[in-house]
Amino acid sequence: MKQVVLWIGANAGGVSKTTLTVHIGYEMAKRGFDVVLLDLDTNVSMSQFCGLDKDPPLEQTIAAVFSEDFDGNWPLLMPEWGKPKGKLQICLGGPVMIQVGSDLAVRNRREYVLADRFEDFPLPHQLVILDCPATLGNLNDVALAVATHMLILVELSPKSLTGANVLGATRKSEIGV
Ligand SMILES: Nc1ncnc2c1ncn2[C@@H]1O[C@H](COP(=O)(O)OP(=O)(O)OP(=O)(O)O)[C@@H](O)[C@H]1O
Ligand SMILES: [Mg+2]
Hints:
Distance between the termini: 22 Å
Low-confidence stretches: none
Number of strands: 5
CATH topology: Rossmann fold
CATH superfamily: P-loop containing nucleotide triphosphate hydrolases
Bound molecules: adenosine-5'-triphosphate, magnesium ion
Number of helices: 7
Largest sheet: 5 strands, parallel
Strand order of the largest sheet: 3-2-4-1-5
Number of domains: 1
CATH architecture: 3-Layer(aba) Sandwich
Structural class: alpha/beta
Strand content: 5-15%
Helix content: 25-40%
């Protein structure tokens, strides 16, 4: 089965991105799939939702994956709750991602840093879910460059639906994927 990499996005904050990431992840793991949640957000929501350390050392976060000398050892953690049939793992982000986001601005192949890691050190999971910041920027671009699927949360109004369509299409084409 080909790996599904799901980007959960929105053009607003506080609209359930992390809630959905955790719930879809848990439900799929419950159905027997191996799932990993990659937290690219700068806030502590994912660690809070999963009962994990809100201020882990950098090497225990996805910031380590972005470091130039990453050796392929993805720092994966398990939530404090639940024992689904499949594997449910988490690579935490948090405040360390503020620096990662700004360093990306001057980095070579910046949009593809995560894509390069996926190619060199593939994750074995059937489903990868990317939880990103609400603000569109470098951290969303690296996520979009690896996404095979997108889920965009919108209000049910024609204006919002048009906006979501534009958001998906333009960001993908701007980074050339
Ligand atoms: N369906 C829902 N019903 C009621 N409350 C909800 C629902 N979904 C999420 N919430 C609550 O709304 C708040 C924001 O949710 P969440 O953190 O998932 O949003 P987010 O889009 O990830 O936010 P951010 O942009 O800050 O990362 C949380 O307190 C969450 O518990
Ligand atoms: Mg969130």
